[in-house]
């Protein structure tokens, strides 16, 4: 049986998604829905290194305005006497006022790396800066929590490729961009007939069996995604569509506990304010619709939305009205189930820098440990090897 290059590329794409979790979709036919009030984590990755100082603004700090004479945010929305938020994040300000948003400032790790790829790997794997791990922190959560699960389906990434964060040694999340597109691809006559073709080679046979499982069950995930159609209006941006997919799945009886999304690029070396404003506007409107959807369905208290970026930017602007790669940054936490709200710790100290870069005060692995232990009810020491305490905001 000859396979044309075009068909090979299509089957490779479908099989790759399936191999990220063999028999993933078949598992979704099992009666393994989340228990009532079980907590759900949604991770939103700000890809490219978001500038934290122009996100949560030290609105009374003279150093900030001096070092950023052209790009400093002068019309920030006030959060308290010392702090503002970028005006493009007006809904985040509303969440803050409602006690539904927390901000952790100055999050990073020792000996920071300014490479996009390496720093993202460190955040994904929860490794030390000189340590190279092949598994991610959420993937190891799957390994720890799903060791009895023959077909774990506890994590989904709304993307075409699976991030390191969701790859465990024995279990992996499943990545797909659009349930309908996956379903339509699986229903093509070519792929359906392909599964019936016999292969004796063990490796190839496994590939075809895995592909067959996806073909035979792709309609299930599509049905789940539309089983609880939302009346909530979402923006027509890609992020808006991604959040709509997540909301639909959360409202169904799927057993997924972790969802992962990304938006970017925040690599703002040139004309930063224009780029950041556009990205923040998209995020602001998508999150506004998502939270409204969760609230209307009574699940906002059981969902935690967490944001992060692989690093922040340098304190001083560059000659192109942008900022270059820096170090520490803030993280947002949005939920109706927060124990502590608002600004959780001090703003970065702009008088104490390391060659122009912020010096972190909060280790991101402590944040992960907090989420694993207090929200997902997992053994954070086994997943992370972290034994240096946790926070109490959730």
Report what the structure shows.
The protein has 394 residues and is α/β, with parallel strands linked by helices. It has a single domain, classed as Alkaline Phosphatase, subunit A (3-Layer(aba) Sandwich), CATH 3.40.720. Helix content is 38%, strand content 14%. The chain has 13 helices and 14 strands. Strands 1, 5, 6, 7, 8, 9, 10, 11 and 14 form a 9-stranded mixed beta sheet that branches. Strand 12 (353-354) and strand 13 form a beta hairpin. The longest helix has 26 residues, at 202-227.
What is the level 1 CATH name?
Alpha Beta
Number of helices: 13
CATH topology: Alkaline Phosphatase, subunit A
CATH structural architecture: 3-Layer(aba) Sandwich
Spatial gap, N to C terminus = 56 Å
User: Helix/strand/pairing class, anyone?
Assistant: alpha/beta
Based on CA atoms alone, the radius of gyration comes out at 22 Å
Shape: globular
Number of strands: 14
Mean pLDDT: 86
What is the beta-strand fraction?
5-15%
Q: Give the SSE order as H and E letters.
A: HHEEHEEHEHHEEHHHHEHEEEEEEHH
Poorly predicted regions? 15-31
Helix percentage range: 25-40%
* Domain unit count: 1
Largest sheet: 9 strands, mixed
């Amino acid at each position: 049986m000859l396979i044309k290059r075009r068909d090979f590329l299509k089957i490779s794409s479908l099989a790759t998604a399936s191999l990220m979790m063999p028999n993933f979709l078949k598992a979704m036919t099992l009666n393994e829905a989340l228990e009532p009030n079980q907590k759900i984590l949604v991770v939103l990755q700000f890809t490219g290194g978001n500038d934290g100082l122009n996100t949560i603004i030290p609105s009374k700090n003279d150093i900030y305005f001096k070092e950023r004479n052209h790009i400093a945010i002068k019309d920030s929305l006030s959060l308290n006497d010392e702090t503002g938020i970028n005006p493009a994040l007006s809904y985040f300000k509303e969440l803050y006022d409602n006690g539904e948003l927390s901000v952790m400032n100055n999050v990073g790790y020792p000996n920071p790396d300014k490479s996009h790829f390496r720093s993202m790997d460190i955040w994904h794997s929860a490794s030390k800066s000189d340590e190279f791990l092949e598994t991610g922190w959420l993937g190891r959560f799957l390994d720890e929590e799903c060791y009895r699960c023959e077909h774990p389906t506890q994590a989904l990434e709304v993307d075409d490729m699976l991030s390191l964060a969701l790859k465990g040694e024995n279990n992996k999340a499943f990545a797909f961009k659009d349930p309908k597109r996956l379903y339509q691809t699986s229903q093509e006559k070519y792929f359906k007939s392909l599964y019936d073709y016999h292969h004796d080679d063990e490796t190839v046979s496994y590939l075809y069996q895995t592909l067959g499982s996806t073909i035979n069950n792709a309609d299930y995930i599509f049905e789940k995604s539309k089983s609880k159609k939302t009346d909530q209006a979402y923006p027509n941006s890609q992020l808006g569509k991604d959040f709509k997919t997540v909301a639909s799945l959360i409202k169904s009886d799927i057993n997924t506990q972790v969802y992962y999304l990304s938006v970017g690029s925040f690599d703002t070396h040139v004309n930063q304010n224009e780029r950041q404003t556009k990205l923040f506007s998209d995020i602001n409107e998508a999150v506004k619709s998502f939270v409204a959807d969760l609230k209307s369905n009574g699940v906002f208290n059981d969902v935690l939305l967490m944001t992060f970026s692989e690093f922040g930017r340098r304190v001083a602007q560059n000659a192109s009205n942008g900022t270059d790669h820096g170090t520490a940054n803030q993280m947002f936490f949005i939920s109706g189930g927060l124990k502590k709200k608002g600004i959780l710790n001090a703003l970065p100290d702009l008088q104490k820098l390391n060659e122009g870069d912020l010096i972190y005060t909060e280790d991101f692995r402590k944040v992960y440990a907090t989420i694993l232990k207090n929200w997902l009810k997992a053994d954070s020491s086994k997943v992370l090897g972290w034994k240096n305490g946790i926070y109490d905001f959730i």
